[in-house]
Design brief:
This protein has no helices and ten strands. It has a six-stranded mixed β-sheet, with no helix packed on it. Strands 1-3-8-7 form a four-stranded antiparallel β-sheet, with no helix packed on it. Helices cover 0% and strands 47% of the residues. β4 and β5 form a beta hairpin. It starts with a strand and ends with a strand. With 116 residues, the chain is mainly beta.
């Protein structure tokens, strides 16, 4: 059974930082491409970033320069370091399998709220 468990969200002031974690199990993690996506309040799911099997990363325009995604194959985990957070980054963040919004995002997600 595929399991994706996100953690690390919370409330942060504008300009602050958060690090999200995703623990994965139930599929061949080291050979899988992984992504982060988010769903802002009242909006649809949008792709944030992805990492290829060799660690190559890809970012949406709004994430470039502020977010960093890494994978740790030894721990079957991916992480999203988010810096210079803005109120528009407020969303539920999900990790998923694949390199696009068409991937499998099946976890419960993690709320990130950016507010003063």
């Amino acid at each position: 059974e595929v399991q994706l468990v996100e953690s690390g969200g919370g409330l942060v002031q504008p300009g602050g930082s958060l690090r999200l974690s995703c623990a994965a199990s139930g599929f061949p993690f080291s050979t899988s491409r992984m992504s982060w996506a988010r769903q802002p309040p009242g909006k649809t799911l949008e792709w944030v970033s992805g990492v290829d099997q060799d660690g190559t990363t890809f970012y949406s325009d709004f994430a470039k320069g502020r977010f960093t995604m890494v994978r740790d194959n030894a721990k079957n985990a991916v992480y999203l370091q988010m810096n210079s957070l803005k109120p528009d980054d407020t969303a539920v963040y999900y990790c998923g399998i694949g390199l696009s919004i068409a991937g499998t995002f099946g976890g419960q997600g993690n709320q990130v709220t950016v507010s003063s």
